[in-house]
Here is the input.
Amino acid sequence: MSNKLVYLFREGDASMRDLLGGKGAGLAEMTNAGAPVPPGFTITTEACKHFAQTGEFPRGLWEDVLCSLKDIEGQTGHGFGDAVNPLLVSVRSGARFSMPGMMDTVLNLGLNDQTVRGLATGSGDERFAADAYRRFIQLFGKIVLGVDGRNFEDILHESKGGEARQDTDLSADELREVSRRYRKLIRAEAGREFPQDPHDQLRSAIAAVFRSWNGRRAVDYRRLNKISDDLGTAVNVQAMVFGNMGNTSATGVAFSRNPSTGEDVLYGEYLVNAQGEDVVAGTRTPRTIAEMAREMPEVYHQLEAIARQLERHYTDMQDMEFTIERGRLYMLQTRTGKRTGAAAVRIAVEMANDGLIERRTAVLRVEPSAIEQLLHPTLAPDARLRAQLLTRGLPASPGAATGEAVFDPDEAVEMARAGHQVILVRRETAPEDFHGMVAAEGVLTARGGMTSHAAVVARGMGRPCVVGAGELRIDEATGILSVNGRSITKGQFITVDGATGEVFAGRLATQEPDLSEYYRAVMGWADEFRKVGVRANADTPHDAAVARRFGAEGIGLCRTEHMFFEGDRIDAVREMIVAETIEERRAALAKVEPYQRDDFGRIFREMDGLPVTIRTLDPPLHEFLPKEEPEVRDLAKKMGIPFERLQARIAALTETNPMLGFRGCRLGIAYPEITEMQARAIFAAAKDCRDNGVDVRPEVMIPLVNTPQEFRHQAEIVRREAAAAGFDGYLVGTMIEVPRAALLADQIAETADFFSFGTNDLTQTAMGISRDDSARFVPLYLEEKILLNDPFQVLDQEGVGQLVKIAVERGRATKPGLKIGVCGEHGGEPSSVEFFVRTGLDYVSCSPYRVPVARMAAAHAALKKMTATGGNDFGQLT
Ligand code: PEP
Ligand code: MG
Here is the structure.
């Protein structure tokens, strides 16, 4: 056991949390930082452990306590037990880990029948002194002597004559009478007198705090939070200060900078003539710190200077508790302040510019999720308070959107044209809903998981979206949604928050994102530290332009089937899918080819100088085939074939398990003319661009490859078309999105120029969970903690991650330096990005709006890796 059992605040520091507990270490650090902390001392956790084992104070503890009390007396000029000028102390627990409200605190200790008079004379306020004594007896009786707290409350309640009066209405005489009755209660319940000797009081209070470590609440809390029972608690004894000694006294909280905007001004609120519990109770409206500058200018300036000093000491924004006792300021606590994304960015940049922190620290202070907040509209800060939550779904695409509920995509377009804001509500979405999604402010579906059509498409557009809200009953025909006993009919306002998955009734205020100069600065620094590339999943020239603005260094996935969502293009793709003869298919392909060539050309131009990965067609058939009769009739007419024939063909193509069906390279192998057409379009566009001075770098990617033979089959077609076009300087690679491809990566790498992990399908196939139906049970799994995260949102590193590692190892065993990326939705999720960096990928690719988030996550991953390797990497970065 360490010899020293008691530390004055000035003898400790922040590193001594094990011995002094979190609170004690914090008070010590703050004292040494020069803040005006009421003096005090901390009894170590070692002393508590000894007490827990033996039921007694360790030898020498009490002498040390008395000696430390002398120090407090010296500093305050008050005497412990002094009838004229009494010192009062608080006795609080404080373990290594914060255990809020689990252990006990005694305030105003040192009061007795004599010292209370001294307090009354000294404060000039008899009522104040009588109330302090009354509170002390109550706390001491309950915590130290174990009398049921409700008995004290009953007495207080009776003295007020029921609810009619507040505590503050009781006079000094009435409070004295309450104290007298409290003591009688103690005598009856505890079988002993309330102790008049302050030393007795202190000794018993310390023992009570030690005992509270093994109290029922504390033990349960530790079990729940997996905190060891062996740590023990420290005990902090500190001189009392009072914020309720009249109008020059106050208590409050302050942030050293504005936690919502990050502006470098003191921010917070305070209550005059009040104690901490009055602030918490919320019965009086506090004043802003800005008012303090007028009302108590001297204290304000002092607080401002202390805030600045603490900030410099801790090199971060501080959240502080303070008390003013008759014009004199005391700091009671300081800790790192919580802040919004915008504030995090501004504070980090300004602190780095002021030389308070290094740039790498500034980057690490900005969580990728903070960047996410900045890029999308959010609910106005107070909107949520009054909001009526309808239900919760999956947070598929971040951002808050409000609008009239509309249940049909055509209507969404019409209403948007007429100037309405709309939210498109569907059971699930399919390609023919695309124009409705474009017109809507946000999208809500009852079905589908994080990688369902609605989720992927909305994320690509940066449109707020909640999917898989399974409690919703949607009647698309009548335009009514019902949930939890409420109905919303077409035209009524709803609000979705795609960052949290919440769906609200009514029109809630949102605020637009604002990409400030601070954002640009911190992203620039992040890019200096980042090592992996960040590309975007972009399907159209417009998406490519957005991606480039967000800092994408190329396109990691262009889903060619997504290029047909607009206008009548979908018909040509459908014709191609349902064609029964090669002639029919060639006729449909001939319609598609010019679109493709034109789009590829425009994308190459947008991405001048950067790689563009184009994936050959991969349309899950259930997403692309027309379902409703009018659509089928329409298509039959356009194709010039009988309705019945088309219907029969669609029936023949309908699959039980479309996600595992006729999609990916299987389509291109069955119908090589599709791959031929696509490759021809790619290389014709590429050649044309190159001839016109554009630096084109096409990378053609084959989806859903299972066997090396599949890849070779498709790669040969691509290479043949490139040769025919006379184009060189391109790559042909494969997606790794089924477990077998990961396991056979060494063989596939023999002919593939690159790999890109399709972690959406890899998750689906490795876990055997349908990506479209995961919402049925994944939320339950999360609730039951069977899964910690939705695996379609956060990569399952433990399971699916192994396949990623295996494929990287085996692929590079065949071809050292093989270029490997990821283009599943996990490529924009911060913890997954860190995993991909650790696993040695060359780039991650994600939807355009997530590119900045991925850039920040990649910078964090690089900086953390650097720290883990002792900073050896650092030199290469700068
Ligand atoms: C994937 O499966 O991860 C992928 C990127 O392809 P898609 O989402 O288009 O199936
Ligand atoms: Mg896939």
Summary: Confidence is low (pLDDT under 50) at residues 871-878. The chain has 37 helices and 31 strands. Residues 590 and 765 are 34 Å apart (CA to CA). The longest helix spans residues 582-606.
